[in-house]
Design brief:
Layout (H helix, E strand, L loop, with lengths): L1 E5 L3 H12 L3 E6 L10 E4 L1 H9 L3 H5 L7 E6 L5 E6 L2 H7 L4 E4 H14 L3 E4 L3 E6 L6 E2 L18 E5 L4 E4 L1 E4 L6 H7 L5 E13 L9 E7 L2 E8 L4 E9 L10 E2 L2 H7 L5 H9 L3 E8 L7 E2 L2 E3 L2 H4 L8 H16 L5 H30 L4 H17 L1 H6 L2 H4 L3 H5 L4
Parallel strand pairs: 1-2, 1-12, 2-7, 4-14, 12-20
Antiparallel strand pairs: 3-6, 4-5, 8-9, 8-10, 10-11, 13-16, 13-18, 14-15, 15-16, 17-18, 19-20
Length: about 425
C-alpha cells in the first residue's frame, strides 16, 4: 500500500516508521524546509517508551535522554513537597519501561534516521493542500488559494490523489493527517473548527544545568495561584527544561514559536523557589504560546483519509501526554492496517481502540490545570493537604492513580489486552 503522511513531527515520523516497517511505501510531506524541532523538552512516560520500543528506537532514545528519580508536586513559592512518586528503577519494575526526559530535537532525529533507514520518502518545503479519489471528482482543497471541489468516494474506490501547495500530485492509497493542532487535513475533511482557548498562556525555556544544580532529579510541577511551572533535566542531564503556564487573557496566538520577553516571564514567577527563578534567569531566550484544545471529533477518518495525534485529539499539556498519544496512535494504526486487508475496517478499528483513551486523556489534562492553579491559601490547603497526607499514609494509592496512563502498551492493546 502507498501511504502519504502530512506532517513530519513526532506523530508523523512515528507513523511513517511503523507503516514502513509493516511493508508499506510511505511518503511524508513536511511544510518546513528542514525536519527539526524547536528547543524544548518532552516527557516520555513508560507508555510512550513501549510505543518507541515497538518501533525499534527505544534504545536510541534512551541513549540521548535523562531518567528522573521521581515525579513531584511542590508549592511554587516555598518549594514544599506535596507528593513524590518514584520512577527510575521503580517505573521499569512497575510498568516494564522507563520514564525518560528528552530534548524534542533528539527524539525527532532518532525517528527521522530510523524512518529514512526503513525507506520512507521525505518531501520538504511542501504542504498537503488537497485530496480526492481518482475518477470521483476534482481535488478538494485550496490549491493556488482556490476551493476546487469536494472529497468523495468509498475506501477502495480508486487511487487517492494528494495535491501539494507546490502543484505536485502524489498518488496513494491512504492519507494520514499528522499535521498538528492546526491540521489542514482535518479542515479539508470536516471544515473549519473552532479551537477552544484554555484561558492560559504557556512559556518555555531551556537553560544549562549549571543554572541550578540543586534542582531535584525529578519532573517537578511547581504550583501557584493562577499559574504553575514544570522543570526537569534532559539531554543526559546537561540541560534544564522549563515550562510555565499563566492564566491570562488578551493574547491568544496559537502556535509555539513566538519569542517572548524574559522580563515578563520573570515577573510572572517573581518570588518563587530558586529552582524556578534561577532557570528563568539563565535562559538565553524564552518563547510563549496560547494554549488551545479542541472538542473530541465525531470521527477520525473519511474514506481513505485518517487523522493522528494532535490533528484529532489536541489536548492541554497538563498530563504531559500529547506526544505519547501520537506515538501510541502510530503503533496502533500500523497494527490495525497490517499488510493491507480491509482498509475501511482497519481505520474503524483504529478509531475504536484509540478514541476512548485519548478522549479520557483530553479531559484529564484539562482538569489538571485547576489542580495546579489553586488561587488562595484556603483552596490550596483543601487540595494539597489531602494529597500530602495520602502521600505519607498511602503512597501505593498515590502511585496507582497513574497506572491507567503508564501501564498502557499499544502492542498489547492491538491484541485485546489492557
Amino acid at each position: 500500500m502507498k501511504v502519504v503522511i502530512a506532517g513530519a513531527g513526532i506523530g508523523g515520523l512515528a507513523a511513517a516508521l511503523a507503516l514502513a516497517r509493516a511493508g508499506h511505501g510511505v511518503t511524508v510531506i513536511e511544510r518546513s524546509q528542514v525536519i527539526s524541532e524547536v528547543g524544548a523538552g518532552i516527557q516520555l512516560s513508560p507508555n510512550a517508551m513501549k510505543g518507541l520500543a515497538a518501533l525499534g528506537v527505544a534504545e536510541a532514545v534512551e541513549a540521548v535522554a535523562s531518567e528522573p528519580e521521581a515525579l513531584e508536586l511542590r508549592i511554587g513559592k516555598t518549594g514544599e513537597t506535596v507528593f513524590s512518586i518514584p520512577v527510575g528503577a521503580a517505573a521499569r519494575t512497575r510498568y516494564g519501561a522507563p520514564y525518560l526526559h528528552a530534548h524534542r530535537a533528539d527524539l525527532i532525529q532518532v525517528l527521522l534516521e530510523a524512518a529514512k533507514g526503513a525507506g520512507v520518502r521525505l518531501v520538504v518545503g511542501a504542504r498537503v493542500a488537497a485530496f480526492a479519489r481518482e475518477g470521483v471528482g476534482r481535488l478538494a482543497g485550496e490549491l493556488e488559494g482556490q476551493l476546487v471541489g469536494e472529497v468523495g468516494g468509498p475506501v477502495g474506490g480508486g487511487e487517492l490523489r494528494v495535491g501539494l501547495d507546490t502543484g505536485e500530485i502524489v498518488a496513494g492509497d491512504l492519507l494520514v493527517g499528522a499535521d498538528g493542532i492546526r491540521s489542514t487535513v482535518r479542515r479539508l475533511m470536516w471544515g473549519v473548527d473552532a479551537p477552544r482557548f484554555t484561558g492560559a498562556v504557556a512559556w518555555r525555556a531551556v537553560a544549562p544545568v549549571e543554572a541550578y544544580r540543586d534542582l531535584p532529579v525529578a519532573a517537578v510541577v511547581w504550583t501557584g495561584a493562577g499559574r504553575h511551572a514544570v522543570t526537569y533535566r534532559m539531554r543526559r542531564g546537561a540541560l534544564i527544561n522549563f515550562v510555565g503556564v499563566v492564566e491570562e487573557d488578551g493574547w491568544e496566538k496559537e502556535g509555539w514559536d513566538e519569542v517572548g520577553s524574559k522580563a515578563d516571564l520573570a515577573a510572572a514567577f517573581e518570588g518563587w523557589d530558586p529552582a524556578v527563578t534561577s532557570v528563568i534567569g539563565a535562559a538565553r531566550s524564552v518563547h510563549r504560546w496560547a494554549l488551545y484544545d479542541r472538542a473530541p471529533l465525531a470521527a477520525w477518518s473519511k474514506g481513505a483519509v485518517v487523522l493522528l495525534g494532535d490533528a484529532c485529539h489536541a489536548m492541554a499539556p497538563f498530563q504531559a501526554q500529547g506526544a505519547a498519544m501520537a506515538i501510541e496512535d502510530a503503533v496502533v494504526l500500523a497494527g490495525c492496517i497490517g499488510g493491507r486487508g480491509d482498509l475501511a475496517a482497519a481505520l474503524a478499528r483504529y478509531e475504536a481502540l484509540r478514541k476512548p483513551r485519548t478522549t479520557k486523556m483530553q479531559a484529564s489534562a484539562k482538569s489538571n490545570m485547576g489542580v495546579f492553579h489553586r488561587s488562595n491559601l484556603v483552596t490550596q490547603a483543601a487540595t494539597y493537604g489531602p494529597m500530602r497526607m495520602a502521600n505519607m499514609l498511602a503512597p501505593a494509592f498515590v502511585r496507582s492513580r497513574q497506572d491507567w496512563i503508564y501501564a498502557y502498551d499499544p502492542v498489547a492493546a492491538l491484541k485485546g489486552k489492557t
